[in-house]
Specification:
By secondary structure, this protein is α+β, with helices and mostly antiparallel strands. 39% of the residues lie in helices and 16% in strands. The strands form three sheets. The protein has a five-stranded antiparallel β-sheet, with helices on one face. Strands 4-5-8 form a three-stranded antiparallel β-sheet, with no helix packed on it. Helix 5 runs antiparallel to helix 7. The longest helix has 25 residues. Bound molecules: 2-acetamido-2-deoxy-beta-D-glucopyranose (6 copies). One 2-acetamido-2-deoxy-beta-D-glucopyranose (NAG) binds next to loops. Pfam families: Ferritin_2 (PF13668).
Length: 297
Amino acid sequence: MKTTTFSTLAALVYAATAFVTPQVRDSSSSSSIDDTDVLNYALTLEYLESNFYAGALNNFTQDDFINDGLPVWARGRFEQIAAHEKAHVVLLNNALGSNATQACTYDFPYTSPSSFAALSQVLEGVGVSAYAGAAQYITNSQYLTTAAAILSTEARHAAWVAGPVNKENPWANPFDTPLSLSSVYTLAAQFITGCPSTNPSLPVKAFPALILDNAAPGQATNVSADGVNAEGQYVAFFSGLSTTFVEVQNGQVVVPNNSMSYAVLSSSNTTADDSTISAGVAILSFPFNSNGTLSSS
Ligand SMILES: *[C@@H]1O[C@H](CO)[C@@H](O)[C@H](O)[C@H]1NC(C)=O
Ligand SMILES: *[C@@H]1O[C@H](CO)[C@@H](O)[C@H](O)[C@H]1NC(C)=O
Ligand SMILES: *[C@@H]1O[C@H](CO)[C@@H](O)[C@H](O)[C@H]1NC(C)=O
Ligand SMILES: *[C@@H]1O[C@H](CO)[C@@H](O)[C@H](O)[C@H]1NC(C)=O
Ligand SMILES: *[C@@H]1O[C@H](CO)[C@@H](O)[C@H](O)[C@H]1NC(C)=O
Ligand SMILES: *[C@@H]1O[C@H](CO)[C@@H](O)[C@H](O)[C@H]1NC(C)=O
């Protein structure tokens, strides 16, 4: 297959844009992250998801969904997902009591039911990675059980949207991909336009954008990062529980042959965490079909 065809197959290659909101606190030491922080981090993401679904369902009727080529059952299921996200918000709010962060304002770049469904696939995948990555900081066993119950529901959403609705991979690996708090925050922040100034700070920072131009599996790809010299650093590709480090040479890296990965720029070739990441996250998702072959259907 020619390289040029891959770019049209790469249905979802999102690059996070750099974004700064006031309520962040750069935590270089993970020991300062407590359960209240993790629950507020989760609540921040749940507000975003809840707002995302409520807004789209408010904008698009059943006819809009069908006229845009989506199945007749899609909108009803999205309503159920919207109700789930709202329930997650309520539960986390109750658990946090007076410590609960408040909803922000958001701007999502979808323009149609199908582009909403494409973005839903990304957000649900990031939601799964967020809970998987944050689990290590939860000390209260009841909170951990609750987080597991939310995580598995988000994973069902992710699989349903990706598979039956978008006709892509319902999963990519035997393991989902945990993401660091700041990596997830960087992805979420591009949709957040403002937050109440009274919100508690989160132990996160937003990284500059990482761009992998026309990325395709097994192909050399141009790498650039906002205000960061990528040359000689490493692109860490997270896929499942594995990380592949590829040195940026002459402005390029060869993208690993994975159907799905998250990429960050790291100063280290053995570690990619909030202390070594200099740009990212870029999301790479390629349509490998049920035979494990890259294809457009
Ligand atoms: C608020 O957070 C602090 C610090 O984590 C904790 O000690 C306190 O119990 C929390 N209050 C509520 C109502 O959950
Ligand atoms: C959805 O509707 C809101 C008003 O309810 C509007 O501000 C927003 O631009 C709409 N978004 C899309 C993608 O149509
Ligand atoms: C990528 O992996 C798929 C499935 O294992 C295989 O069919 C394909 O040939 C591989 N492509 C490259 C460029 O290695
Ligand atoms: C990579 O960058 C080079 C030099 O700027 C450019 O000629 C080439 O078209 C780019 N390749 C892709 C795949 O974007
Ligand atoms: C990793 O980086 C070190 C320098 O920090 C270098 O000596 C080593 O060769 C690198 N290993 C790989 C596999 O790139
Ligand atoms: C998978 O392979 C089988 C057997 O070769 C073929 O009949 C089928 O069409 C393929 N499926 C896709 C989605 O390409």
